[in-house]
Amino acid sequence: MKPITFPDEVAVLISGEAGQGLNTMEAFLCHIIRRHGLCVFASKEIMSRIRGGLNTTLLRISKQPTAAFRRTPDLLVSMRSGGLKRLDERLCEKTVILYDPRMESAAPRGNGIPIDMKEIARDAGGKLYVGISICGILCALLGIPEEASRHEVEAFFKDKQPQENLAAFTAGYARGRKPDLLHSLNVALQPGPRVAGRLMMSGSQAVGLGALAGGCNFIASYPMSPSTGVLTFLAQQADAFGLLVEQAEDEIAAINMSLGAWYTGARAMVTTSGGGFALMEEGVSLAGITETPCVIHLAQRPGPGTGLPTRTEQGDLNLALYAGHGDFPRIIYAPGSVKQAFNVTRKAFMMADRYQIPVFVLTDQFLMESSWLEDNLSYDGKIPERYLVESEQDYQRYAVNDSGISPRAVPGSGQGWVRVDSDEHDERGEITEDFNVRVLQVDKRMRKAEGLEENDDDITLIGGSDGDIMLVTWGSNYGLGQELATRLINPSVSCLHFSRVYPVPQKGLDILRKAKTVIAIENNYTGQFGALLCAAGIHVQDRILQYNGLPFAVEDVYRSLQQKINGGAR
Amino acid sequence: MSSSPFDLPYDLDIAWCPGCGNFAIIKILKQALENAGIEPRKLVLVSGIGQAAKMPQYLQCHYFNGLHGRSLPVATAVKACNPELCVIAESGDGCTYGEGGNHFLHTIRRNPDIVNLVHNNMIYGLTKGQGAPTTMKGMKTSIQLKGYALEPFNPLAAALAMGAGFVARVSSGDAAQATTVIEQALAYPGYALVDIFHPCISFNKLNTFRWYREHTDSLEDHDETDLESAMTRAMQTEPYRLGVFYRQAKPTFRERSHAYDTDDSPLCRRDIDPAKLADLLGNYRIPTG
Ligand SMILES: Cc1ncc(C[n+]2csc(CCOP(=O)(O)OP(=O)(O)O)c2C)c(N)n1
Ligand SMILES: [Mg+2]
């Protein structure tokens, strides 16, 4: 058999059941491969259970960075009995499959290479160490020198059974050098200096770091996948950064606590997912009328109801957009990379404080739980600006003015009274049922919407603005759009990504107005962002939608776009 | 009328019915605040929605008049973020024990240093007389046409069971006792519940001024640190006991949250240390060489 070669990229899919240490394998492999000088993008796909089931992690190992999902791997490692059958539709004839014949009822179609999974880690300590043995095999295949990788194992596992892990890794590495593997696979990826010095992090970490940069000092939330990572991250940073982290009794308490915190001048955030956010809705409305700043991180998963708790979707844009009774302004950011996640979360605090409105950071499981590479986050080290005033004797919390932004004071500083009211109120903040005052206050609140600052980085254009086809993506499909636009080498295809989806940035609308064909790519059933564009007068000719709980696979979208392009040319 | 530092310097259009028990309570509250030496500019009243929840509108103080049922989480956070403030969460029985029931239980577990004043008129006043969690069995309302059928919620027993460190009940009809007890609640370092019996003259024809006078009596021969005795008395109905049922020091939310372990400055005035964050970002960098 001629060795299969991978000159630019090898996509490795590792599958196993919950409890087999897939997370550790992913973290270790990301670490060691990146240190070796190759790019890795890792995304996981897990079942909603603690033990058993079938989970996978996909590692795209490449010379140039990638940031999108692939359905069909080049190499599959199956660690669970019966795994091949369950993954069949993700495989093709070319996929090389490392599997244990004793765990499968039939040999795989394509290139199967049997591995004795039981045996491989037996001397090292048994089945707990199969995962690290597999890591050994992969490191050998990738050509990571044995000596260097052994050092990495020792450092990585220094507090976690270092001897057993090292022995298991070494056994795996030796297995990876055996002729059956070595001669059938040629992973000729040349490492380079392009990875060193870059940042690797998950979306959860990026949102958490962005919150710290934005001055977050209070977070109250209720656990819900996939938003919990942010809460966990901030809990770990609480001591170092002097913030208060509280697990609330429910999401209703969480958002009300956050408003209480902002009322005193603290900077609070809540992190939640669709169902939890649904409980916060009245609180969003409260933020609207009391003009209390509010930062909401909403990490989407497929709904309705409990839906698919551990999977991904972009189905909650409408929820964020229309949440809360009554009219009031809001902003919704939807970052698509860890850099954007860091920057928009930070900006969310600034915009919430400055305009005294609720600001959303809308993410999803794919962004939260994948491991991304980024050149840098461009952190300028500035202390966030505060938009507070010292109150005077005759201070009025809801003073009517041109901008609609009444200067915000906090209780306990200054001479005035800070009266905040969920009932309609007059300028002093006292309950009123005066129709004229009502109109003045609604107009005042809504005036803030007119002045909301837009930034250049609210949108990203990949390719030119004068092509034939403009792909539109938002949120976590940033990497997908980028890869598509570069791969469809056709200069007439470009991609416009929105990291702010509401209000839709004017600049983005201007570009779309000039585009000949607009194709919106979204991870939901109805095309929620496309509908928003239509409402703004954009003609969205076509949509590519997916709602199976997985991120878009770049090769699937590529194929369907090619069909559309060729079909269009006829 | 004697003047108080908590009087507003302008005329008010008060939304309570003439003769409402709330008029007695506002006088009691102002007096207790004055006795306790609370500075108006350091006072934040947090309320929900209902007739009771309008209290902050009629006092010279800072306030956050939030949503129905949600006074406690707001109050908890206000105190946690600025411990220099005196924070009172004040609302009705429906607001606190019904819509906000879950917050009631968990705020007690958290034990923030706040006072919780609950105007218990055993009815939904503002929405015109539907049954409340504390409505007595058998009382006919516009919805419970055949008589209210649910077991009444016993806030004192629930609070004691959840581990509250200060549990009291007073009646708006006994201003002297109510003032003293609220004063003590203000001095107590932790969550202090004061359930306030008072009549709703418009919608509760059963629990009138007279009814409260005839069916209540002060606690006697009671040791405030004896939880069992407090529980027994909280369960007692005829007469309903008034006074401080239980008082015991407990660690407050400030301590439990650890946010002030090494830094005394109020959370609301803390800034991020950019150098620290830059260091943290460095941990995510893939090392060279
Ligand atoms: C979420 C929500 N549900 C219902 C209402 C309507 N509502 C306003 S006050 C109230 C009950 C008030 O009863 P209570 O809290 O006992 O106060 P009271 O008026 O008796 O002082 C209700 C049901 C509301 N404002 N918000
Ligand atoms: Mg009531």
Main attributes of the structure:
heterodimer; A: 570 residues; Pyruvate-ferredoxin Oxidoreductase, domain 3; 4 domains; six-stranded mixed sheet; 23 strands; globular; B: Rossmann fold; eight-stranded mixed sheet; binds thiamine diphosphate
Describe, in plain words, how this protein is organized in 3D.
- In chain A, α11 (274-290) links the parallel β12 and β13.
- Chain A is 37% helix and 20% strand.
- Chain A contains 19 helices and 23 strands.
- Chain A starts with a strand and ends with a helix.
- Chain A has 570 residues and is α/β, with parallel strands linked by helices.
- In chain A, the strands form five sheets. A seven-stranded mixed β-sheet of chain A has the order 11-10-12-13-15-14-21, with helices on both faces. Chain A has a six-stranded mixed β-sheet with strand order 3-4-2-5-6-7. Chain A has a five-stranded mixed β-sheet with strand order 18-20-19-22-23, sandwiched between helices.
- The mean pLDDT of chain A is 94.
- By secondary structure, chain B is α/β, with parallel strands linked by helices.
- Chain B has a single domain (21-262), classed as Rossmann fold, CATH 3.40.50.
- Chain B has ten helices and eight strands.
- In chain B, α1 (21-35) packs across α6 (175-187) and α3 (93-99) crosses α4 (101-110).
- At the A-B interface, β9, α8, α9, β11 and α10 of A face β2, α2, α4 and α10 of B.
- Bound molecules: thiamine diphosphate (TPP) and magnesium ion.
In short:
With 570 residues, chain A is an alpha/beta fold. Chain A has 19 helices and 23 strands.
Helix percentage of chain B: 25-40%
Helices of chain B, by number, come to 10
Number of strands of chain B: 8
Helix/strand order of chain B: HEEHEHHEHEHEHEHEHH
CATH topology of chain B: Rossmann fold
List the SSEs and their pairings.
The complex is a heterodimer of chains A (570) and B (289).
Chain A: E1 4-5, E2 9-18, H1 22-36, E3 39-45, E4 52-62, E5 75-78, H2 83-86, E6 96-99, E7 111-114, H3 117-120, H4 130-141, H5 146-156, H6 162-176, H7 179-182, E8 185-186, E9 199-202, H8 203-213, E10 218-221, H9 228-241, E11 244-247, H10 251-264, E12 268-272, H11 274-290, E13 294-300, H12 317-322, E14 331-333, H13 338-355, E15 358-364, H14 365-369, E16 371-374, E17 419-421, H15 435-450, E18 459-462, E19 469-474, H16 478-487, E20 493-498, E21 500-502, H17 506-514, E22 517-522, H18 528-535, E23 542-545, H19 554-569
Parallel strand pairs in A: 1-8, 2-5, 5-6, 6-7, 10-11, 10-12, 12-13, 13-15, 14-15, 19-20, 19-22, 22-23
Antiparallel strand pairs in A: 2-4, 3-4, 9-16, 14-21, 18-20
Helix pairs in contact in A: 1-4, 4-6, 5-6, 8-9, 8-13, 10-11
Chain B: H1 21-35, E1 43-47, E2 62-65, H2 71-81, E3 86-92, H3 93-99, H4 101-110, E4 115-120, H5 155-162, E5 166-171, H6 175-187, E6 192-197, H7 209-215, E7 216-218, H8 227-235, E8 240-247, H9 253-257, H10 274-282
Parallel strand pairs in B: 1-2, 1-3, 3-4, 4-6, 5-6, 7-8
Antiparallel strand pairs in B: 5-8
The complex binds thiamine diphosphate and magnesium ion.
